[in-house]
Each structure stands twice: as C-alpha cells, then as structure tokens.
Write a structure and sequence with these properties.
mainly alpha, 67% helix
C-alpha cells in the first residue's frame, strides 16, 4: 500500500478507505475493542503487539482483563527483537476478526 501511495495516491486512498488494518483498532471505542480482543488468543496478541507504539499497546492492555494484560506485558518484556513475519501474520489475523465484526455491524469507530 505504501508503494502504491507513492505512485497512485488516489487508488491507495480508495483501498485504505475500504480496508481495515490492525492499526485501525486504535480508533475503536472501548466496547468494540474488547469484543474483538475477546476473540484473540494470548500468543497472537503478544506477537501482534511487537513494535507498535507504547500508547497503542496501553490502549490494548486497558481493554483486556488485568491478569491477561500482565501476562502480555511480561511476554513483551521477555521477547527479543522487533516485528517479524509472525507479528504481521498476527496483526492480519486480528484485523480479519475485526473486519468480520465490522461486516456484522457489531462495533463503532471513535471519531
């Protein structure tokens, strides 16, 4: 999408409007985010959070149970390296879950 944005920005913008990416979770309201995160297993969540901004991580952790959030924090602290293929696969999996919720009109974005 980044390459397309450079060569054909109009098409890239249209694709962006029609797509849902992992980063879009940051725009979800709390109840919608909680609903999506309930469907995500712990390892997928940990993998997906590697390399994202601390503020986004905190938003995710605020919307999962405290015990699960503590495990995620510990796993992130112990993990080595930055984002990798597993990270992107995990983010894609979570985005797919969110997209399914969006299709079913089960949540709203924050403005």
């Amino acid at each position: 999408l980044e390459n397309l944005k450079e060569t054909q920005p109009e098409i890239a913008e249209e694709i962006r409007k029609r797509s849902l990416f992992f980063e879009d979770l940051e725009k979800f309201d709390a109840s919608s985010l909680k609903a999506v995160l309930r469907e995500v297993d712990l390892q997928t969540l940990v993998s997906a959070l590697k390399g994202i901004s601390p503020s986004f991580i905190e938003k995710i952790l605020e919307n999962i149970p405290a015990g699960k959030a503590e495990i995620v924090r510990e796993e992130l602290d112990l993990s080595e390296g930055g984002p990798n293929r597993m990270t992107f696969e995990a983010q894609k999996k979570i985005a797919f879950i969110a997209k399914d919720f969006k299709k079913k009109d089960k949540f709203k974005f924050q403005k």
